Amino acid sequence: xxxxxxxxxxxxxxxxxxxxGERVKDCPLPALYLKNMRQAGMLLRRWFGTETSRTRxxxxxxxxxxxxxxxxxxxVLQQIEGKAWAIGTLGxxxxxxxxxxxxxxxxxxxxxxxxxxxAHHNRIPVLVTEVSSHGIEQERIAxxxxxxxxxxxxxxxxxxxxxxxxxxxxxxxxxVRNCAQQA
Length: 183
Prior knowledge:
Layout lengths: L1 H10 L5 E4 L10 E4 L2 H12 L7 E6 L4 H16 L3 E4 L2 E5 L2 E3 L8 H13 L4 E5 L2 H5 L8 E6 L7 H4 L2 H18 L1
Parallel strand pairs: 1-2, 3-7, 3-8, 4-7
Antiparallel strand pairs: 4-5, 5-6
Helix pairs in contact: 2-4
């Protein structure tokens, strides 16, 4: 229940809340209400100062192969662009021997924007990002503009979470389609 979570956040020192979706009855904190995760992503772009970033994002989705493709693509882009980073299962990969654990393939919305800002402020031209089906459905990439999307494979993982194969494939397809519409 959102009210319980917000009361706990207030108890631990939160001064305000950002709430996406419906209003919370009796919210114990001053709140900024946003209609959707895209608005939350755009708020984070403004917060981190990346609205006009030149860092390009390339997203990789698929059941298998995301990590290998991200690794190889980052290396190729590093040769072409001078610098390239990757986010994914291995963590934040700045270079072959400079990897920081992130705990999950596609980090939270806040952490995705924090990492994008880090790349932006370090003048990294390209950020290769593994985009999991969970990350797409939970909108952890909202507000990030992807210049290209790669789809490596489709299998039968995560079907129970997504409600079947058609829904799982549809999530992956939506990411690629949205990327193509942005281009």
